Amino acid sequence: MASELCKTISEAKLERHKNLFLNYRNLHHFPLELLKDEGLQYLERLYMKRNSLTTLPENLAQKLPNLVELYLHSNNIIIVPEAIGSLVKLQFLDLSDNALEIVCPEIGRLRSLRHLRLANNQLKYLPADLGRSRELQYVYVDNNAHLKGLPSYLYNKVIGCNGCGSPIQKTEVQLLSFSSGQLTVFLPAEVKLIGTELDRVLPLQEMAMRTLYNIYCQSLKDLKFMTPISLPRSLLDLLHCPLGHCHRCSQPMFTIVYPKLFPLRETPMAGLHQGRTRVSFVAYCCSTQCLQTFDLLS
Ligand SMILES: [Zn+2]
């Protein structure tokens, strides 16, 4: 078995392979052959899922400097060394189904990383600046039972998060929810109503803020005295201070408003200016629906 592994790696080295498949090899540590001498300078994709690795070598970046994708799904990895930050070309990192309790901030600072998979670990929190990099677009953190809250940078990313720890429910409603501690907040049905590409759908963050606000108002009446749930500070502050309320339906708006202009000369106030003014009255609405149906005269 060991000699077969050596042969596979030597071959990859000699023939300058870009892909190396070491899945299902019962490996307890990184094979030395991978890290010997100058390493595998041409390797771009390394597949090592379903082994028994517990950590990664410190010199990974020196030995595999051109690594673009690293698949480590289903190992027993507890710690990822900070040296992973030196894999400057890494775009895809799969650490799902491991035993990670923390991830080092260096992972979030990998400047080429686009796709990060951390589902099914033991994560309690994520580095505060995870998601700050523009490149990082997809982050999966499903089924981390103790994870509470997400770094605010992730609110603009595609996040695979079934509820920060709740077991996956197969109903549609559950798939459109997120939870924080005891509170499960269902995303509004509008999420599911994307018809054509012309439909303007509110950003997810805005919908979540409105839903949270309504839940708090219903249950606690006074937002000032609410128990802080594990929302990032920036979102909690935002929740306390809506940008305004919809002129049509009075719904609070947090990050987006739809303005509607009414030139004063077309309003009942036109007489005050003898129709000469170019000033407009601006109404703010919460959605395209309110925008279309709002009328100054109604
Ligand atoms: Zn409205």
TrEMBL record:
InterPro entries the UniProt entry points to: Leu-rich_rpt, Leu-rich_rpt_typical-subtyp, LRR_dom_sf, LRR_domain-containing
CC terms in the record's Gene Ontology section: cytoplasm
Keyword Transmembrane helix assigned: no
Record keywords: Leucine-rich repeat, Repeat
PANTHER family from the UniProt entry: LEUCINE-RICH REPEAT-CONTAINING PROTEIN 28, PTHR48051
Protein's name according to its UniProt entry: Leucine-rich repeat-containing protein 28 isoform X2
Taxonomic source organism: Pantherophis guttatus (Corn snake)
Lineage: Eukaryota, Metazoa, Chordata, Craniata, Vertebrata
